[in-house]
Amino acid sequence: PITKHILAAGVAAAALMGVNAASAQEVIKFAHVVAPNTPKGQGAEFFKKRAEEILGDKVKIEIYPNSQLFDDDKVLPAILRGDVQFGAPSLAKFGKWTKKLQVYDLPFLFKDMDAVSCFQNGEKGQELLNSMSGKGLTGVGYWHNGLKQLSANKPLRAPEDAAGLKFRIQSSDVIAAQFEAIDAVPQKMAFSETYSALQTGVVDGQENTWSNIYSKKFFEVQDYITESNHGLLDYMVVTSTKWWDGLDPEIRAGLTQAMNEASDYANGLSANLTAEQRQAVIDSGETEILSVSADDFAKWQTAMKPVWDEFSGDIGQDIIDAAAACN
Ligand code: LMR
């Protein structure tokens, strides 16, 4: 009975310390801002499932979707503090940490998602996973969402239709410049605040993927969506370099395997989910979809493309060239 009591006390103490009695259990939090029924939401759940299958009780993965834990501007400092272990902000949200990832925001850089995969899997794309190592952050994978569409409460057929309108944007200087290039007014704002800003008219429009427009119901508060495919919204899954390098090698190997599988899964899923959710937006009848003629597409491109030169010094022309070569 005495040993039993000692054991019980040990279990209680271990529980208080947040470790499993049998062996130390690594509790790993993954925070993101989108809904579970999105490529990122599904990727995170797949990562949890595989990591727990591969490593058993050694790890417990907790997923926090929908900005429950942190908005994207807070998640990176939280990773460095150790309050959360993984985040997957959009590539548009790393401007304070590295200028190189701005390449992904350049308008009309990628003609389709195959070109995006080509660049991300190539030498330069892989190098960019380490572009924040000096700041203590390691990229462990890229996850697709998709190409962005423009929405507003008036039809945007050509660039001049957007003049004077306010657009909610992600916290990216490139995206701000893109809207300024068409004489619109960009307003940086957290994803979690976007629906209500559109609903109350604080902003007139926004740009996002079909998946985000659908899962956050932006289509219910926007009368028109222009199918412009003018830019990319993808993610980098990031963790703390110090935490990652300090992990038990067996756990790190298991997490690496689970993350690689989750990246393949999310990237394989995104095209179908995009098509499905685009159709659901159309079927809702709540908004009008405007397709873009070849002539108008060229006009948008001409109006927005000067942004490339503005940022090529910060990004590096070699990186831009490698991305463009994937088309
Ligand atoms: C946004 O802020 O619009 C996106 O970055 C949200 C997301 O994570 O897809």
From TrEMBL:
BP GO terms, sorted: C4-dicarboxylate transport; transmembrane transport
Transmembrane segments: none
Pfam families according to UniProt: DctP
Signal sequence, renumbered to the chain: 1-24
Superkingdom to which the source organism belongs: Bacteria
Keywords: Signal, Transport
Gene Ontology cellular-component annotations: outer membrane-bounded periplasmic space
CDD domains, per the entry: PBP2_TRAP_SBP_like_1
InterPro entries: DctP_fam, TRAP_DctP, TRAP_DctP_sf
Family: Belongs to the bacterial solute-binding protein 7 family.
Record-given protein name: C4-dicarboxylate ABC transporter
